[in-house]
Write a structure and sequence with these properties.
By secondary structure, the protein is of the alpha/beta class. The chain has one domain (about 5-255): Rossmann fold (3-Layer(aba) Sandwich), CATH 3.40.50.300. Helices cover about 35% and strands about 30% of the residues. The protein contains nine helices and twelve strands. It has a six-stranded mixed beta sheet, with helices on both faces. The chain has a four-stranded antiparallel beta sheet with strand order 2-1-4-5, covered by helices on one side. A two-stranded antiparallel ribbon has the order 11-12. A hairpin with a 2-residue loop joins β4 (about 55-60) and β5. The chain is globular, with a radius of gyration of 18 Å.
Length: about 260
């Protein structure tokens, strides 16, 4: 069973077409990268796939259910979204913030269990923040706050992770180690990942499928090896791009 199906999905932002009649099937274990120029609608696409906004036309199916027939709690048990920006309205510790990821699984008046706390601490360990669990959230740097958001998503443990620029604010070592952990976890547990990225090389390294948003509603998607071609990338970014093949991997360079 596929985790998500987009059938003839059309999305617009004012006069900009993000995609037109997009048909997309996300299978367990897949890692998808979404690439395109700034302002092309990558964030809007992820928000639509998460059920936070209505598409202009088409339908979204999650595990054989139309997303519009599901409650927010049901959706949150299936789909998790990493936002590009984070706002903390109330003072709280890192651990209290990360425990929000367990809310889709507990009743309205129920407190988090010891198991929930254990899951949250495991997630904090995975992003190297377990030693700061009781620090106030408003005392963190941008990179630390991003890692808290990722830990919250890992604590939620949805089947489909939608990541909007997951490497934002992260140092190079965390960009690689955290994305590697997320992708390996998804494959091992038959989950899936869709992430918007600015860096073509990160998509080449971590993604087995790529969706290119090329503008005017056009899109290209398929296996990474088929989509990350110089001509397609130059059309997408409207800039010359060269591919260099090293012993270890392919590297894309803007001319």
């Amino acid at each position: 069973m596929s985790l998500l199906q987009a059938n003839r999905l059309t999305i617009r932002i004012d006069s900009t077409r993000v995609c037109t009649d997009l048909n997309l099937t996300i299978e367990p274990g897949q890692i998808w990268g979404v690439l395109g120029r700034n302002g092309i609608g990558k964030t809007t696409l992820l928000h639509t796939l998460a059920g936070l906004r209505q598409p202009d036309s088409g339908e979204l199916i999650i595990a054989d259910n139309n997303i519009h027939n599901m409650s927010r709690k049901q959706i949150a048990q299936k789909i998790g979204l990493l936002l590009q920006h984070h706002e903390d309205a109330f003072p709280s510790t890192i651990l209290e913030t990360v425990l929000i990821g367990r809310h889709p699984y507990i009743s309205q008046w129920q407190w988090e269990s010891q198991q929930d706390h254990d899951i949250a601490m495991t997630a904090l360990n995975q992003v190297d923040l377990h030693n700061l669990a009781h620090r106030q959230i408003n005392q963190l740097s941008g990179g630390e706050r991003q890692r808290v958001a990722i830990a919250t998503l890992l604590t939620q443990n949805p089947e489909l992770l939608l990541l909007d620029e997951p490497n934002s604010h992260l140092d190079l070592n965390y960009q690689i180690s955290i994305l590697d952990h997320i992708c390996q976890h998804a494959k091992q547990h038959h989950h899936a990942v869709i992430m918007s990225l600015h860096d073509i090389n990160l998509a080449a390294r971590f993604c087995d499928h790529v969706l290119l948003l090329t503008g005017d509603g056009k899109q290209q998607h398929g296996l990474t090896s088929e989509i990350l071609q110089e001509q397609l990338l130059e059309e997408t970014y409207q800039h010359p791009i060269s591919l260099i093949q090293t012993d270890r991997r392919k590297i894309y360079i803007a001319e």
